[in-house]
Amino acid sequence: MVDSHDYYWVRYFHFFCLDFPVRFLLQQYRKIKYKRLFKYVDGIILHGQYVYDVYVHPHKYLNFYYGLDYSEIESRPWEEKENLILFVGGDYFRKGIHRLLRALPLVLKKVPDARLMVIGNDYGYVKAFARFLARRLPVEFVYGMPRAELYKTYGKARRSSCRRRSRLSRWCHPRLPWPGAAYSLRCGREPRDRSGRHNRFIVPLDDYGLLANRIVQCLTDRDLSERLVVQGREFLGQFSTDRMIGRLEEIYEAVITEHSKRRQL
Predict the structure, then answer these.
(1) What angle do CA 112, 151, 182 make, to 5 degrees?
(2) Rounded to whole angstroms, how far apart are CA atoms 226 and 15?
(3) Domain boundaries along the sequence of the chain
(4) How many angstroms separate the CA atoms of 200 and 176, rounded?
(5) What superfamily in CATH does domain 78-236 come from?
(6) What is the value of pTM for the model shown?
(7) How many Å apart are CA 177 and CA 197, to the nearest integer?
(8) In this predicted structure, what is the pLDDT of residue 264?
(9) Which range is most confident: 12-26, 33-47, 64-78, 106-120?
(10) Percentages helix, strand, coil for the chain, rounded to the nearest 5?
(11) pLDDT-derived band of residue 254, with 50, 70 and 90 as boundaries?
(12) What residues contact residue 38 under an 8 Å CB cut-off, 6+ apart?
């Protein structure tokens, strides 16, 4: 069995970064390596519909449940929250920090006291370049934060950005809306969760004006922000550890059954 959570093991998509030649060569090596490995694999567990579509294998299984627990995130009244924008995660440029920095000056024209906090680590040269791009902007970089403190920080923010993977798709949507903030963004394809309810915005990758407007909406429109938070919490309810374990058990049982059938042929 192979478990994969991302596309870059089998495909290369270019995105803005300083070391893209190294990343390209590494991905080509991975592609050859895993193509050979897959011949001996009975099943591949893939996390998320996009990753499932990218991989080519006769026995692949979709696991949409991540076993997340955000019950400790503090919930604060609107009046106690700050005009704080969060960018959470490492691998800054694959997750689109440069786009967020391009949109930030437009946000500041309408919300002068807005500020951005980048929480996550990366290579030294990446952090240095990100800090260079963020010069003269109200941006704070935090390269490590205990989970308890991170959950408190979520409660302070009115907007969270978890932008991910600049893939071939032109659209951004959230992987998971953080319940402590208005909404989060991820580059991908699916505009709605499985329930069909709207709990995020769809923004073209390089439309910095629209991205800035959406951020401003979440910082200034109380009804909109609180509605997205509530719907985000409801969406997160399906990502329990029990559901993740249950789905994994289903997958392993299916793989064992299929393997037994092939051996009998």
Answers:
(1) 45
(2) 33
(3) 2-67+240-264, 78-236
(4) 9
(5) Glycogen Phosphorylase B; (3.40.50.2000)
(6) 0.78
(7) 12
(8) 79
(9) 106-120
(10) 45, 15, 40
(11) very high
(12) 2, 44, 57
